[in-house]
Design brief:
DNA binding; 434 Repressor (Amino-terminal Domain); 12 helices; MLTR_LBD; HTH cro/C1-type domain-containing protein; Lambda_DNA-bd_dom_sf; six-stranded antiparallel sheet
Length: 284
Amino acid sequence: MDDVDEFAQVLRAWRDRVRPEDVGLPPGLGRRAPGLRREELAQLARVSVDYIVRLEQGRARHPSPQLLASLARALRLNDLERDHLFRVAGAAVPPAGLVPRQVTPSAQRMVDRFRNAPVAVAVHTAIGELVLWNPLWAALFGDPSSQTRLERNVTWMYFAGSIPVTHTPEDDEAYARDLVGHLRTAAGRYPDDPDIHQLIDRLLKASPDFARRWKAGTVGELRTSRKTLHTELVGDIVVDCDTFTGGPGDQTIVMMTAVPDSEDEQKLDLLRVIGLQQLQRRPG
């Protein structure tokens, strides 16, 4: 069996073992197999259904590392399975010493569980790059799948881009300090990752505020804060932002919630519905 056949076989096998409810999708009716349909995998991996068909039939060669990472996340692969997927696809396995971008199955399940709740949840790498999100997050901040990796980086967005969020002056100062400290901590843990050095260099050139804070030598982690989110569709929303750090791969899970039964929670729930509708309308 050559690598193309092996790639097609494991892709079909791993698709068959993932239940729709495991990824936040409805079970549906008339299923001939317990796993995901090709259309569902295409939706989760953000590729066309035709491309999934060609991959499973061995007619598509040399998928990109970005696509392989998307498939690995969609199929809930562990690290060994992900590395095997890369090898049989003819791609280089992500080397050790780099900031992990592979989302763990447990983090993926947490995001899936909040697909139908008024909770915005996302997973960031150790350097603040957004790698997984639910539909409500996309409705609040724009579809990350249409953004570059730099545009999806929360530290870059805060210091050099734009983000539709405001804090109290005290919380804003603490948040800026935490972002810089969190990035410095990651730089110490992953000194051989060129992406970290490139991000820091770009931030130093683009933002005098970041440069000043970086020079101060701050080291730290992100903390819980209260934010006001500014949206065009439903106006301002006040949320509590809880940040969970220290998980596998030093990834961070961010959750935004509003006071139960409040007007702010009702606005989040409306945007959640809009986010799901936009996801369903996106071409596969």
